[in-house]
Amino acid sequence: MMIPAKRRSFLQSAAALALAGGGLPLAFAAGKIKPGERAALIVVDVQNCFVPGGTLPVAKGDEVVPVINRIATAFENVVVTQDWHTPGHASFASTHAGKKPFETTKLSYGQQVLWPDHCVRGTDDAALHKDLKLPQAQLILRKGFHEHVDSYSAFEEADRKTSTGLAGYLKQRGIKTVFVTGLATDFCVAWTALDAKRLGFETYVVEDACRAIDLNGSLEAAWKQMKAKGVQRIQSEDIALT
Ligand code: VGL
Ligand code: ZN
Predict the structure, then answer these.
(1) Which of 9-18, 103-112, 128-137, 207-216 has the lowest mean pLDDT?
(2) Can you give the residue ranges of the Isochorismatase-like domain (predicted)?
């Protein structure tokens, strides 16, 4: 049977559309983000010190663990960070005579919030949370190990001069996009995300995979700054898990 030319071209384009539709990942159809081989999950400071029972506990900090474990299955590339301080670190209130935790002081590079002694290198307090399940993690990056300089960011120390090398590592491995999770939203997560964006990575923060310290409005300020700089705020359910 002859099919009229007009009808034939309709059938052909319908078939092409069906093919394209069928070829799309389900996740895309559902409007979710699918991390590809050029994306990395960054898991910030999910350590004993930052969960209840630790030396600088973040409220409900342990709740990020199952969320991170779940989304991590969607990632080929995972980087884990550890806050890793010397004894007598410059960020510890106990290092500064007359200072109490959560006060601030002026250090050579600027204002520094002073914290309880926490995440001292090699202690159990500084160990990663035992329930993290990240067998595919490729890099564990320690930061804050210089006695006189803090490092909230996984990319650059608080002097804003000393690099951790993470941007070079990610770039040399072809990573273009990072998804930041962990503790605490308003300190190490926010600083890491802001640096990632500034250094040229497309940057997402997965809000429910983070918990905050929230010191004097720091959480709201952090989200405001991240929004202004183009860091994207998403939820774990926005990530396609297949
Ligand atoms: C952090 C305060 C001090 C963090 C680390 O991981 O957010 N906060 N050190
Ligand atoms: Zn610290």
Answers:
(1) 9-18
(2) 39-237
Q: What is the pLDDT of residue 242?
A: 75
Q: Is 197 a catalytic residue?
A: no
Q: Is 188 in the pocket of ligand 1 (CB under 6 A)?
A: yes
- CB neighbours of residue 69 within 10 Å: 15
Cβ(46) – ligand 1 distance below 6 Å: no
Nearest Cα neighbor of 83 from 165, 177, 146, 168 is 146
Output phi, psi for 191, to 5 deg: -65, -40
Instruction: Kindly give the number of the ligand 1 atom that is closest to the alpha carbon of 91.
Output: 3
Q: Which atom of ligand 1 approaches the CA of 187 most closely?
A: 7
* Cα→Cα distances 150→52, 121, 199, Å: 23, 13, 20
Which structural domains are found in the chain, ordered by start? 37-85+120-238 (3.40.50.850)
d(CA 23, CA 124): 48
CA of 168 to the centre of ligand 2 (A): 23
What's the rounded Cα separation, in Å, for the pair 49 and 166? 23
